[in-house]
Write a structure and sequence with these properties.
The protein has 66 residues and is mainly alpha-helical. The protein has two helices and no strands. The chain has one domain (7-59).
Length: 66
């Protein structure tokens, strides 16, 4: 039996991921620290966010509520 999380869990994971991403961007993201360092950390955080968001979206069964 394939036990993938339902849509409500997927939305919760995306909300938590968004909150963590916003906090990390405010602390280490674009424009923080030296210009080169802030740019590099911002790009790395953006790539990691995209990877995790795709993982949540593809691993969630959007038709199951619970």
């Amino acid at each position: 039996m394939d036990r993938r999380p339902g849509c409500l869990v997927g939305f919760l994971k995306l909300a938590v991921l968004d909150a963590v991403f916003d906090w990390l961007q405010a602390r280490f993201g674009f424009g923080r620290g030296c210009s080169c360092t802030g740019m590099g950390c911002g790009v790395v955080l953006l790539i990691l966010f995209a990877i995790f968001a795709c993982s949540v979206v593809t691993g969630t069964d959007w038709l199951r509520l619970w």
